[in-house]
Amino acid sequence: MKGNRNLLMLQPSPYVIQVIGFCEEPPNSTVLTESCEKCADLNKILKRGQRSSSKRYSGQQRFEWATKIVGAFDYLHHGLGLPRLHCDLHFLPQAFNQFIVTKDHSLFMSDVDEIPQVDKKNGEYATCHREIGGIMKQPDFIPPEQRYTAEEYKNKEPCKPVDEKSDIWKILDITRKLMEVSKLEEFIMKELEIIHQKCKNLDPKLRPIARDVFIEYLKVLKEFQTRKFSKSKLTFNTQ
Q1: Radius of gyration of the chain measured on its C-alpha atoms
Q2: What does DSSP assign to residue 99?
Q3: DSSP string, 124-144
Q4: CA distance 138 to 154
Q5: Could you check whether the bond before residue 27 is cis, i.e. omega within 30 degrees of 0?
Q6: Assigned domain for 205 exists
Q7: CA dist., res. 147 & res. 92, Å (int)
Q8: Which CATH number is 131's domain given?
Q9: Helical spans, DSSP H, in 54-100
Q10: 231 within a domain of the structure (yes/no)
Q11: What is the pLDDT along the chain (239 residues), one digit of tens a residue?
């Protein structure tokens, strides 16, 4: 039910799959979303591209998805009053599972079960669940403030408080993975090198806000368009 309620709370948004109907009869709830014929989560899409070159998407399409993901972070952090962070991003395949790609190649958040709110003024921070067994599959993907030692996990120490800046740490890794089979990877990484370095600051307070990262991504996307690449089908919103 929490996921359904979160999905409703995020409506309407160009970053979340659209809800067209809802019925709640405790303890059950049902959400009816827009038609998603031939939809697949982003992780499956990327796996298909690894198995067959004919199923790989263009470098521009992949960067459009990366930009849309950063836009989704911006929406979670700045579009709902108090910021929310995405706690279901423990390693890259799981992160990509949180987004679906429709048959027209549009990308949306679909799994929003764990998006806790942060209220820094009142000292209220989020506590994201640790990975099962305390094993971090991709430790570098997890920001330093969210990592646990084996001893900490064994001693069942309380979950560490984090804020939306933990999402910012993960942006570089998400984009690099999306672009790794593209000829545009070197160009993208060079254009965004400075903002990506800031995203990886060990001190979360010194990392940029999602809006600043999103603006840099949009600048690069616009450069694609001025170089006569095909127009993006994605909808972005910085309001």
Answers
A1: 18
A2: E
A3: B-B-PPPPGGG--SSGGGS-G
A4: 19
A5: yes
A6: yes
A7: 15
A8: 1.10.510.10
A9: 59-78, 92-97
A10: no
A11: 566 788 888 888 899 887 767 677 676 766 666 666 667 899 999 988 666 554 568 888 999 999 999 999 999 999 998 999 999 999 999 999 999 998 888 999 988 989 999 999 999 999 888 776 556 778 899 999 988 887 887 787 888 899 999 999 999 999 999 998 888 899 999 999 999 999 999 999 999 999 999 999 999 999 877 775 444 444 455 54
Distance between CA atoms of residues 211 and 107, nearest Å: 19
Instruction: Give the CA count within 13 Å in the CB-facing half-sphere of 117.
Output: 10
| Distance in angstroms (rounded) separating the CA atoms of residues 28 and 38 | 27
Q: Give the Cα separation of 41 and 46 in Å (integer).
A: 9
Alpha-carbon distance values, 73 to 130, 133, 227 (Å) = 21, 28, 27
Nearest alpha-carbon partner for 144 in 212, 77, 207, 202: 202
**Tokens 């790609």 appear where?**
101
Q: Work out how many domains the chain is built from and give that number.
A: 1
Q: Look up residue 120 and give its DSSP letter.
A: G
Parent domain of 192? 37-226
Whole-prediction pTM: 0.87
Q: What is the Cα–Cα distance from 196 to 69, expressed in whole angstroms?
A: 15
- Hey, what are 205's tokens? 């307070």
